[in-house]
Amino acid sequence: MKKRLTLLLALLTLSCIKPNTEKTSFSQEALSETLLNPQGEQVAFQDILKQHQGKTVLIEVWASWCGDCVKAMPKIKALQESNPEVEYVFISMDKTAQAWEIGLEKYALKGAHFMANDQMQGVFADAIDLDWIPRYIIVDKTGKIVLYHAVETDFDTIKTTLTSLK
Question: Which stretches are transmembrane (predicted)?
């Protein structure tokens, strides 16, 4: 009986784990979703990517309330120093524009800034398979996603990926 229960628990646990599939392009749903810019305008994600066409882009999905995000900021700033040719796009999952604006000022991250309209449980978050923040996505110069699912503990992989794209 004990063995059966253990096996059942193991199967249930494995069935709840989301597969870590690496995508090479964004879904149409993600591309068409709009994000708020600091000027209060809605911008389609596909238009944000077009602004950085021909460049390597590191996208960080974060929030000012996220302890892991704040802890990773020195690492992002170090990446920016060692990879100045990379374009940085920050997408906030803050609950309010005011909290986002305070976070932008407080943390002074250099790059393009946007905020998801419906935070962690919304359409954009679902469209990029968001399950944790901070989350990092790297897009190469051709527009192909080369790293889809990296988190704060994956900075060695992020550095290696950026180096390989130089």
Answer: none
For residue 118, CA distances in Å to 72, 80, 122 come to 23, 28, 5
pLDDT at 21: 57
Helix (H) or strand (E) holding 115: strand 112-116
Write out pLDDT tens, residues 96-128: 999 999 999 999 999 999 999 999 989 999 999
Number of structural domains in the chain: 1
- Which range marks the domain in which residue 47 is found? 20-164
Instruction: Quote the Cα angle for 28-32-35, to 5°.
Output: 135
> What's the mean pLDDT in 26-35?
96
The two counts, helices (H) then strands (E), for the chain are: 7, 7
To 5 degrees, how large is the angle CA 85–CA 92–CA 104?
75
For residue 153, being part of any structural domain is answered with yes
0.90 exceeded by the pTM?
Answer: no
Residue 140 sits in a domain whose CATH number is: 3.40.30.10
At residue 71, φ and ψ (nearest 5 deg) are -60, -30
35 contacts: CB under 8 Å, gap ≥ 6: 42, 43, 44, 45, 48, 91, 114, 115, 116, 117, 124
Q: What is the rounded average pLDDT of the residues 120-149?
A: 95
